[in-house]
Amino acid sequence: MKTRTLPSGAEMPQVGLGTWTLRGDSAANAVAMALELGYRHIDTAVAYGNHRHVGAGIRRAGVPRQELFIVTKVPRDNLRYEEVLAAADQSLDELQTDYLDLFLIHWPNPSVPMRETFSALGELHRKGIVRDVGVSNFTIDHLEEAQGVTSVPIANNQVLYHPLRNQEALRLYCHERDIVVTSYSPLGRGEFVRDRTLQRLAAARGRTPAQLALKWLVDKGIVVIPRSSSREHLAENLDLFDWELDDEALRALDAMEG
Ligand SMILES: NC(=O)c1ccc[n+]([C@@H]2O[C@H](COP(=O)([O-])OP(=O)(O)OC[C@H]3O[C@@H](n4cnc5c(N)ncnc54)[C@H](OP(=O)(O)O)[C@@H]3O)[C@@H](O)[C@H]2O)c1
Q: DSSP states of 51-109 as a string?
């Protein structure tokens, strides 16, 4: 598994499991199955309401905590200082862990000063409760503002990014500042499986449309967090690192948005 190095020195696996919409036993089952297959990075959020079941899946798989990379997010309606601390506390309790590898602001909220939110994230970072801090759904303007008020480096920006939502300018901006980009909904919420261009390209290469979309992202240094409840899909989405995307496929994927 390739990784991206974060400011703390932590290695963030380039493929993780997304868990949005997975609730109850289906969340626990998907997490346990993914960890058995070799996933080590799990993406969740307070807003997904699945921390307890994600935690149960982790315990079922029995992977040592230090081998895992757990990401969660503080909701946009809880960005006041005390609320951020409380959300972290609640996350540790629900996930049954002592620390978070990465804690993100889920969405920017203009009604709360960023300085206040980052001050709480800085406190969590100083105490070792979160190893790295980051953001999600931040534009370049949001990032400019955030970098002016934080004492802790912004490790990550998790955004919608896939061949039909190519955010090259944002990616380059983040790259120049050592902010790792994570692509959410990398499969367009499953839509790409039906995309004719991807189907044709994939069939000619003995790959699947999902793999081409994910490979296009990881080759750009982007972290991907596809969600799946199927063993077959989970395995497929992890199999990205011992083959190459040829120039024709790359050009076709680059051109998809237009
Ligand atoms: N920060 C944010 O605001 C934000 C917003 C949205 C999402 N996210 C995160 O990003 C994660 C991923 O995004 P997403 O859940 O929106 O959607 P996604 O990962 O783009 O797509 C998930 C869908 O694709 C299907 N799928 C997965 N692998 C496949 C494969 N190899 N072949 C065919 N179909 C496949 C899944 O069905 P099966 O179960 O049948 O495989 C599921 O229906 C979320 O779960 C969440 O953790 C973050």
A: HHHHHHHHHHHT--GGG-EEEEEE-GGG-SHHHHHHHHHHHHHHHT-S-EEEEEESS--
